[in-house]
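ENTRY TYPE: protein
CONTENTS: sequence, structure tokens:
***
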Amino acid sequence: MDGMTAPIEPTASTASPTPTASTTPPTPTASTASTALTTSTADVDVLRYSAFTTRPDGGNPAGVVLDAAAIADDDAAMTAVAARVGYSETAFITERDEAARRYRLRYFSPLAEVAFCGHATIATAVALAERDGPGELVFDTASGEIRVETTADGDGPPRATLTSVPTRSRPADPGTEIEPTLAALGWSADDLDPALPPHVAFAGNDHLVLAAATRERLADLAYDFDALDAVMRRRGWTTVHLVWRETADPSAEGSAENVVFHARDPFPVGGVVEDPATGAAAAAFGGYLRVLGLVDGRTRVRIRQGEDMGRPSDLLLDVTPDDPRARVSGQAVPIPRTGR
């Protein structure tokens, strides 16, 4: 996509299966409409990876700029690159210490900078692992230090595991947070799972967590883009993390992923309808589970996302009761270039 007002590509992590008339992304502001004029971005080399999948047509696409030194001080230029790429986020390495494998990483949606993005972190880590070999990486982000361990076993693409900043979670306010969000989604209180109360969870960004009572409720997502965007901007949320619990047996033997959730993440504040895989929200959800006392010993949660968009994604979330940090793992694969 070459401009922010163009339709967002369904395969680029943004399409809603049943969008309403109000799901058109907002028009650019004066500051973002002129971003391409500040610094030439035509020569910026953008790699394209899909994270939390082993297939280019699955997972969540992210742009990855391994060398953004030339535009490191130009936020408008990075926004323009992200808008041209058209994915929910593009990651930019703006500073580096190759010997220490330490990098400053910034993230931009097509509309603005985002403090932390999980799937773009996984994509960047895999791109570096493919270039320089597996091992530990350290990313300095606006949310804090993020350590990522990359591994390659020769069978499939590299795997990356990020360790989040300390998480936290608090009950959502019924009047100012839950009610207007449900109205924008077209949901009622009866659509929620009473065993999993609404919370605002944090792992670098704030996310409202709402648990659907049924898989059918989660699948039927046709929301008011502008109304939800307004609520999220007032509250400072990055996504609304909608989940449905399929399995709830953390003591099950013989299965690495013995707790299964399905998730969807509306992302109107980033100018896109929906993310098919949201690592930052998954990490925040780990903090949510921990605060609710649903973590007994080391617990691994498998999160299935993107299924209703036709871009299935697998995220593995590891949480322990005595550590406020969450660990999110996934693979990533290059997306073949199409000449853009």
